[in-house]
Structures are given as C-alpha cells and as structure tokens.
Specification:
The chain contains 16 helices and 17 strands. Strand 15 and strand 16 form a beta hairpin. With 426 residues, it is α/β, with parallel strands linked by helices. It has 2 domains: 273 residues, EAL domain (TIM Barrel), CATH 3.20.20.450; 131 residues, 2-Layer Sandwich (Beta-Lactamase). The strands form 2 sheets. An 8-stranded mixed beta barrel has the order 3-4-6-7-8-9-10-11, surrounded by 4 helices. Strands 12, 13, 14, 15, 16 and 17 form a 6-stranded antiparallel β-sheet that branches. It is elongated. It holds the Pfam family EAL. This is EAL domain-containing protein.
C-alpha cells in the first residue's frame, strides 16, 4: 500500500478532497493515512438515571500494512505540519460520522474528539464541518464536539471555534477536566454543555476518601455552572459506586463496555443498571448514610444532657456522658442567634487530637455558628436530633460530624452541639 500524498500546504481541506481517502469495507468504512488503515471504534456512554446508552464516543484505530496495531498517540505524532494535522483530524471525524450515519440509531449522541491544534488552526468559520453534516445526513444536535482540556496559545480563537460548533447546532464538551491544566476559568469562558472528568480523578477517589469528597465537590460545582458531567475510566464495580455517589450524570469505561470496531453489535451490549443501583442503595443505607444510626445511638445522652441543662446544671456535668464516648471530640452551647454561650468542652479524644499548628482556631468563646446548617436545622425543628454529613471543622481543620438539638431553657432557645470525629482514632 502506497502512502497517500499529503499537500505541503493545506489551509482548509474540504469534504471533496478527503472523500477519496475513505473506502467501503463490508458494512463499515475505513480510511487511509500514510500507509495506515484507519477504523472507527465506538464506546457506549450511559446515563445512570436513564439506565441506558445515551451516546457513543468515536475512537480511531489504526493498523499498518502488516495488520499490526498502531497506538493513537503514535498516529497523531505522524503529521509534520499544521495543515497535515488538520487533515488527519478532519479525516477521523469524516470516517466516524460516515460510519455512525449507517447505524440504525436516530436518537443517541456521537462524541467526536477535536485536536486542540486543529481547533486553533485555520479559519473557525470554514464550511467543512457544515458540509460534512449535510453529506452524512447526521443532525447537528446529535453531535458532541469534545475539546481536550489543555492550554492553548489563542484562547479567543478557541472560544470562537466553540461558538461556531454551537451555532451549527452541536453540543460541546470539555474533555479530560481534572488533568494538569484544568481550571474553572475555561469552563466559565467556554460554557460547555458537558464536562468529561479525567480518569485520574476517579483513580485517586478510589484510593483516598478525601479525594472522593473533592470529586463530589467538583461535580457539584460543575452542575452549578450549568454543565452535565461525564465520568470516564470506570473499570470496577467500586468505581461505579463512586460515580453514582458523586452525582455524575453519565459514565463510560471498561466496566460497562469496551470500545469496539464491530459497530453492529454495540446495541446488544448488556448493562444491568437495575442491579447496580440496587447494590448502591443497599450500600448507601449501611455505609454512606450513618445519620439515623448516630441519632439513635446518642439520643438518650442528648436528652439527659438537655434535661440537666434545663435544671441549671453546669455544662461540664450535663455533658459528661456525651464526652465519655470515644469518637466525641467536643460539646458546646449556642443561643437562638447561633452565638456560643460558654467555652467549648473538649473530651480526652479531642485533646489528644489537637494540632498546635491550628491553635489560633481553638478558642470559640462567643463564636457565631448561625451560618452552619446544623444550627439552623436545629432551631427550625426543636426537639429533633440533627446529624450532619462529614465536613471540615474550622476549629481544627479536621473532618467531623456534628449532632445538634434545640431545647428551651428559661423560655429561651438553646442548641446543644456535639462534634464527632469522622475518622476517630482506634
């Protein structure tokens, strides 16, 4: 097989120039580039809530004349000029769209990767992609243009390019968010429809509980920014649970289905989301939502403590039983405005956990806790013991859970609070 001749200068390769590089191969299409045969592989993307496929990411697969596989990273190192890089990028998109147009699927999205160098090369307003939509008869609203998250020398051109695809009617996605160059400035500037989280975030979340909390926070911030969130690289059932718990909208990865060049069989790939969600619900009730167990366990001690406080017993004596529990680090009392009334009582566990580096934060006399949800919830529902999710305590920069109970003392509302170490020492 002879390598295709690549022009030295190629400003805006059009559909008619690239068409001869494609050829029919049975029920699908292949393309030739520098002596290599290029094929389309598709990997399903699933909506957790819908429990079904909602799209496919198109991936390029290359083979040399000896039918040996060539890694995509090596394929995209072959272009020797911006023009040739642009040609390869468009050739891949043309091939993917030509193949996808032959699949009997009139609903789901096709995710197409766009080379960052191609995004910022040439004229963003060229007619190539619009003509390609017409030739393949794919509606633009079924195309998601993925742009890899990395620095660019021309942020304005990148923004204009994203706007161009959006004006065509396509959706846009930022790929690999969470990798080295990620930042929310790019999200605010480009306003993508979908953000794909880098798989390294999931790997870290699998190994580190703190990283899992960070992942959950990133997903929440992206949702508040108006973006749908896709987590890729899901390879195990535990990672699937992390994805569900993080609140992502879509998932992708080997756990569900590997990329395949057998395009006709993709719709038959089984994925049992019913069982996966049932497993998550069972696990969540036991390990992820301990609040009702904590409330039941501490209820009698809280009742006894508030009765003693109503009888004008001092804080130290009233809270003695609470402070004797190993995980309890401190108890404190606030008025109806959230202002702390007395000094904080610190347990033996809390004393052992004090970090001298955070000593400026230890004294909380007359501190105002009204901003805290546990304080407002207690005031809104007197007599009910409230339990927070784990959070970072400002008095010592450690993770804790707070229990709070509002009661009446001499016709005034008081809130008794108790911090429990989220990772209590054994």
């Amino acid at each position: 097989m002879q390598p295709e001749a690549i022009p030295e200068t190629l400003a805006d390769p059009e559909v008619d120039l690239i068409s001869p590089m494609l050829r029919r191969d049975g029920d699908s299409w292949t393309a030739g580039f520098r002596g290599l045969t290029l094929r389309t592989a598709l990997q399903p993307i699933y909506s957790i809530s819908h429990k079904r496929t909602i799209g496919y990411e198109a991936l390029i697969r290359a083979q040399d004349p000896d039918l040996s596989n060539v890694l995509p990273i090596h394929l995209f190192e072959l272009p020797s000029s911006d023009a040739e890089n642009l040609l390869l990028d468009r050739l891949c998109r043309y091939l993917h769209m030509q193949n996808y147009s032959g699949i009997e699927d009139q609903l789901n999205w096709l995710f197409l990767n766009v080379s960052p160098r191609a995004v910022t090369s040439g004229s963003q307003a060229d007619s190539f992609f619009g003509n390609l939509l017409v030739k393949t008869k794919l509606p633009p609203h079924r195309i998601v243009i993925e742009i890899v998250e990395q620095p660019t020398d021309d942020a304005d051109r990148l923004r204009d390019t994203v706007a161009y695809y959006r004006e065509l009617g396509c959706l846009t996605a930022i790929d690999d968010f969470g990798a080295g160059h990620s930042n929310f400035e790019r999200i605010w500037n480009l306003s993508p429809d979908i953000v794909k989280l880098d798989r390294k975030l999931l790997t870290r979340a699998t190994e580190d509980h703190k990283a899992r909390q960070i992942l959950n926070g990133i997903v929440s911030l992206l949702h508040q920014s108006g973006c749908l969130v896709l987590l890729e690289g899901v390879e195990t059932s535990d990672q699937a649970m992390i994805a569900i718990d993080a609140g992502v909208d879509f998932v992708q990865g080997f756990y569900f289905c590997r990329p395949s060049t057998d395009l006709a069989s993709l719709s038959d790939a089984p994925t049992d989301f019913d069982q996966l969600l049932q497993d998550y619900k069972a696990r969540h009730q036991i390990t992820q939502d301990p609040t009702r167990y904590l409330a039941d366990f501490f209820w009698n001690d809280f009742q006894n403590a508030t009765k003693l406080l109503q009888a004008d017993t001092c804080m130290a004596q009233a809270c003695r039983e609470l402070l004797n529990h190993g995980p309890v680090s401190r108890c404190y009392l606030a008025d109806s405005q959230g202002v702390q009334i007395e000094d904080t009582l610190i347990s033996d566990t809390g004393s052992r956990g004090l970090d001298p580096r955070f000593k400026p934060l230890e004294s909380t006399s007359k501190a105002d806790w009204y901003r805290q949800q546990y304080l407002r919830q207690a005031l809104a529902q007197p007599g009910k013991l409230h339990v927070t999710a784990p959070y970072l305590c400002v008095t010592g920069a450690y993770m804790c859970v707070t229990l709070s109970l509002c009661f009446t003392h001499h016709d005034k509302q008081r809130v008794l609070c108790c911090d429990i170490l989220a990772n209590a020492p054994q």
